[in-house]
Amino acid sequence: MVSLTKKTIRGKPYYYARECKRIDGKPKIVWQQYLGKAEDIVTAMTQGQGVAEPEHALVSDFGAVAALYDLAQRLKLAEHIDAHVPKRGRGPSVGTYLLVAIINRCVAPCSKAGIGEWFQNTALRRLIGIEARQLSSQRFWDNMDRVSSGAIQAIERDVVRAMVRSFKVDLKQVLFDGTNFFTFIDTFNERNKLAQRGKSKEGRKALRIVGLALLVSADGHIPLLHRTYPGNQADAPTFRSLTDALIERYRELTEGAEHVTLVFDKGNNAKDNLHSIDQSPYHFIGSLVPTQHPKLLAIPSKRFHSLESEGLPEVSVYRSTQEVFGVERTVLVTYNENLFIAQSRTLLREIAKRQSNLRELQQQLRRWHRGEVRGGRAPTVTGVTRKVEGWLKARHMKELFDVTVEEYDGLAWMTYRFNHQAWTRLQRTLLGKTLLFTDNDDWSDAEIVRGYRAQHHVENGFRCMKDPHHICLRPQHHWTDQKIEVHVFCCVLALMLCSLLRRELQHQGIDLSIPALLEELEKIREVGVVYPPQDQRRSPTIKMTLSKLSEQQQTLYDTLDLKRHRAA
């Protein structure tokens, strides 16, 4: 709150406007403006100051950072961090440093070396009450170094518990999945165990990757649990290693009173995993690997019934009870016309690529046999076979192409044909189909299908974390396991803040994606118009205002009540 203060200097009274805040338990002046003597103030009030031309304007990011800061305050995010990682000595706390890093990941991801400059041009310098010079990369590293794996888990537990209670997050369905993120960590960095070479889900085979497992709510894809794991670890063992943590998180959040359904995909299937979930308080919906159940795929379409009356016109299902990993389960074979078309188009594109490659290779071999090519190394059966196997390595390609490579007149010769019967069989049995299984035996077919479809919420969360403009997890400017864990944790908390912000606005009838929402809020800026002093004894005058708001920006500003965080 701004107050008027009088100072007596050499027996003469002078007046200042100032704003004080309590920081680290002590009052501190965070803003001060010299007003002059009493007669100066009277003159300014009676004659006005709007005559002079403004010198320049100071523009600061306001809308997005203020909205996210407000949510962080409601969550007591910095306080939860500080409770488990108390600061040492003077200066900002660990929670303050991480809060700045979290909001930065949300709106303008940059390295720790660049955060100070970014911070100086935002309203956070006023809201948080620290100086940009305190945000050096070394200070970030020193504070991050104090956050252990155990502290991360304890902080997340407390934050999630407070978040679910304060924001009344619906936990009837929770979703689990894992993904990985490529890094630029050096190959010969042997201190790092998390970044490993494995199957990159973004196709970056040459780079080391870090795995991230997430449990999110179907209500707004809000993170409830996360773990960072080595990038070469498969999904099933990751799920197995987290079953105890998943069960513990269930008990912490629901106190055993809720019917919670855990949804996961087929990559997490294993007998031990299903047994652990069976013994837990969770119910579940999962999917099966279709090719492992040919009898279910062979069920004729006339035995399926449509879910059009249930609001799913493109879906038809066949329901049965089958033994899955040694236990009788409700199993749904679903056929989705839209999925069939999408998968068919994808496969036809891949088929066309292989046909083109095989045709070109065959023509090259014919030129060798006709003697049109004489120089260079002649093609061998081994070399041609290796090339063809590489092309047909993709899913379904081997069954769709019959290729023969043999030696003829001392040179390699190849023939091929497209197997139309295999293509017809693939369309009839596999394309467009998904196999679901669950222990929610009393659920309707439509409820099971919709329950599994909620899996897109965790996929949306991963998609947000791979957005290069917001909540971006990469590139990671860290190369030790401990720093990577803290960095990933900050990104997960950034996803939590953004997801909560979107959910809050959805409840007010404003439905925007996280990127669209942040982009609109980022356009709301504080503008300080600087006027020159009227005489040498006075300081320049600053008048605060906002950038011109569009209709949508004004709606966001009013709905989030951002006026509370405006500069005085």
Explain the overall architecture.
By secondary structure, this protein is an alpha+beta fold. Among the domains are: 2-59 and 527-565, no CATH class; 282-453, no CATH class. The protein is 42% helix and 24% strand. The chain contains 20 helices and 17 strands. The strands form four sheets. It has a nine-stranded mixed sheet, sandwiched between helices. A hairpin with a 2-residue loop joins strand 11 and strand 12 (327-336). Helix 3 (77-84) packs antiparallel against helix 8 (149-167). It is elongated. The mean pLDDT is 86.
List keywords for this structure.
42% helix, 17 strands, single chain, alpha+beta, 3-stranded antiparallel β-sheet, 568 residues
* Spatial extent as radius of gyration: 31 Å
- The helix content is 40-55%
Report the total helices: 20
Give the strand order, joined by hyphens, for the main sheet. 7-6-5-8-9-15-12-11-10
Q: What is the general shape?
A: elongated
Q: How many strands?
A: 17
Strand content: 15-25%
Q: Major β-sheet, in short?
A: 9 strands, mixed
Give average pLDDT, whole number. 86
- Give the uncertain stretches in residue-range form: none
Give the N-to-C terminal Cα separation: 8 Å
Structural class: alpha+beta
